[in-house]
Amino acid sequence: MVCLGNICRSPLAEGILRSKLPQDKFIIDSAGTGDYHIGNPPDPRSVKVANKYGLDISTQKGRQFSVSDFDNFDYIYVMDSSNYQNVIRLARNNQDEAKVKMILNEIYKNQDHDVPDPYTGGIQGFESTYKLLDEACQEIATKLHM
Ligand code: 4NP
């Protein structure tokens, strides 16, 4: 799960997808394309919304996306088109590129919708981010765990 800062959207996506798949069969992680929040916990508003839905994401730590993620993961879900460009820029070949997917295409096929960045807004943005990601992660979990 990849966003810009790895403190708002992708930590939520990581926590949500992890709650929907068996821990012994899937490795789920998140990262930011930027380096601003390396080592930081998720934004308190993401932690709060996750808590409301029974998820604890407070122990996650920000890290930056790196080329090795193409080797370590089968699927790379990005939150918006800017994340997409930044990750694709690091791809070494077609196989790397094929792993990168806009997460909302899971529920709005081929439409390339962004998960809006809630960072500069209020708690309501985090609530709607949660709902979008919950729907998308449900699709992913169903697809990967049949
Ligand atoms: P995120 O939101 O990409 O969903 O984690 C952001 C958080 C921080 C910043 C940008 C986006 N920032 O510029 O610090």
What can you tell me about this protein's structure?
The protein has a single domain, classed as Rossmann fold (3-Layer(aba) Sandwich), CATH 3.40.50.2300. Helix content is 42%, strand content 7%. The chain has six helices and four strands. It has helices at 9-20, 44-52, 68-72, 81-88, 94-98, 123-144, and strands at residues 2-3, 31-32, 76-78, 100-102. Strand 1, helix 1 (9-20) and strand 2 (31-32) form a beta-alpha-beta unit. Helix 2 crosses helix 6. The protein is globular and about 40 Å long. The relative contact order is 0.21.
Q: Tell me the strand order in the biggest sheet.
A: 1-2
**Measured on Cα atoms, how large is the radius of gyration?**
14 Å
**Total count of strands:** 4
Strand proportion, as a percent range, falls in 5-15%
Helix share of residues?
40-55%
Structural class: mainly alpha
Q: Could you say what the CATH topology is called?
A: Rossmann fold
Shape: globular
Report the sheet with the most strands, covering strand number, pairing sense and barrel closure.
Answer: 2 strands, parallel
CATH superfamily: Response regulator
Descriptive key words:
single chain; 146 residues; mainly alpha; Rossmann fold; two-stranded parallel sheet; two-stranded parallel ribbon; 6 helices; binds 4-nitrophenyl phosphate
